[in-house]
């Protein structure tokens, strides 16, 4: 998650430098760490340095996990400090590439929206929603900002509700409706001299802030730890004390799916799976000054992997491969009966 703390409360330049150093220590997590560093540089007002980091990622010989996301963030940043033509070219390229990740769509659409290009923003949001959510009965949590952003822009344009707007309303959990939150008149009321109008707007803003705080309280997915077959066999051989945690690989996979379904049923959003490796786990145990055989370390390891951006969203989108690595579709593997 990109930081949003004002510069007066955090030394963003120092934090960016710390993240760059950490990226050098953990090259497998460099992409997520450098994106965080670039975000801090943007907040510090050093947009040129942020662009340098985005270029560093895009020119890396390593294959990026989220190349379209990096390009979208670069475009948004470039436009903010006067490089509109280059930003537009990148945005057009992203739309043509049609990424299967909601985040790039949201970023480029919001960039257009922030520069008062509401029609283009609405078209971009709609392209993303149509590509990613057509025939999807249960939109994943990561796609909600795409639906909410589209609703907001269409409200600003005065367009009538369609089926996607209705879906956005259904997914919205705040007691204040999306129509009210996205009402263009709210902008006018902020400048009103009428105490009643100001009080009403303060109530709306408090409700909206509550929604944002709920989202910010979960900056990375609630992740369950997954061990591939070979890694689990190596882990069990090296640390027999973990045998009770993992009696068999089949039971391990079934437990993961059952745990995630239980969390989803309880209303927990933003769920994910992180895949462990024995060398990474041993390095983490050493950094914590604890034995890898301590089962209490396992959830901490999972949380740390998620915080480094290593989580894969659960459940997989319809038609996608199963998270277990079986190469079968999720609906035909661990997603049967979901």
How would you characterize this protein structure?
- The chain has 338 residues and is mainly α.
- It has a domain at 222-332.
- Helix content is 59%, strand content 4%.
- It has helices at residues 12-25, 30-43, 47-58, 67-80, 84-97, 102-114, 118-133, 144-157, 163-171, 178-181, 185-190, 195-216, 229-238, 249-265, 278-288, 297-307; strands at 222-226, 271-275, 312-314.
- A three-stranded mixed sheet has the order 1-2-3, with helices on both faces.
- α8 crosses α9.
- The two termini are 28 Å apart.
* % residues in beta strands: under 5%
End-to-end C-alpha gap: 28 Å
Structural class: mainly alpha
- The count of DSSP E runs of length 2 or more, i.e. the number of strands, is 3
Strand order of the largest sheet: 1-2-3
Q: Report the biggest beta sheet as strand number plus sense, adding barrel if it closes.
A: 3 strands, mixed
Work out the helicity level.
55-70%
Run of helices and strands = HHHHHHHHHHHHEHHEHHE
Uncertain regions spanning at least 5 consecutive residues = none
Radius of gyration: 22 Å
Number of distinct helices: 16
Which tags fit this structure?
single chain; 338 residues; mainly alpha; 3-stranded mixed β-sheet; 4% strand
């Amino acid at each position: 998650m990109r930081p949003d703390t004002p510069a007066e409360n955090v030394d963003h330049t120092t934090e960016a430098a710390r993240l760059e150093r950490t990226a050098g220590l953990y090259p497998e997590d460099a992409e997520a760490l450098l994106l965080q560093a670039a975000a801090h540089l943007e907040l510090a007002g050093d947009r040129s340095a942020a662009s340098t980091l985005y270029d560093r990622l895009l020119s890396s010989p390593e294959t990026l996990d989220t190349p379209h996301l990096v390009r979208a963030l670069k475009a948004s940043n470039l436009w903010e400090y006067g490089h509109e033509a280059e930003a537009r070219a990148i945005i057009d390229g992203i739309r043509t590439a049609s990424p299967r990740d909601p985040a790039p769509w949201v970023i480029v659409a919001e960039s257009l929206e922030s520069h008062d290009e509401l029609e283009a923003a609405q078209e971009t949001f709609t392209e993303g929603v149509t590509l990613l959510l057509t025939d999807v009965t249960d939109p994943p949590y990561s796609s909600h900002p795409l639906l909410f952003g589209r609703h907001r822009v269409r409200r600003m344009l005065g367009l009538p509700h369609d089926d996607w707007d209705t879906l956005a309303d259904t997914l919205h959990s705040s007691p204040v409706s999306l129509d009210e939150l996205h009402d263009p008149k709210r902008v006018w009321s902020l400048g009103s001299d009428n105490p009643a109008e100001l009080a009403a707007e303060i109530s709306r803003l408090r409700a909206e802030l509550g929604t944002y705080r709920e989202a910010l309280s979960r900056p990375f997915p609630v992740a369950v730890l997954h061990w591939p077959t070979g890694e689990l066999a190596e882990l069990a051989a090296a640390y027999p004390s973990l045998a009770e945690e993992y009696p068999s690989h089949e039971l391990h996979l079934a437990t993961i799916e059952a745990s995630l379904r239980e969390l989803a049923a309880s209303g927990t959003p933003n769920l994910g799976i992180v895949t462990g490796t024995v060398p990474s786990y041993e390095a983490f145990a050493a950094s914590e000054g604890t034995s890898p055989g301590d089962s209490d370390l396992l959830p901490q390891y999972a949380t740390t992997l998620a915080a480094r951006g290593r989580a894969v969203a659960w459940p997989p989108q319809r038609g996608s491969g199963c998270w277990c690595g079986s190469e079968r579709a999720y609906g035909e593997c661990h997603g049967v009966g979901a």
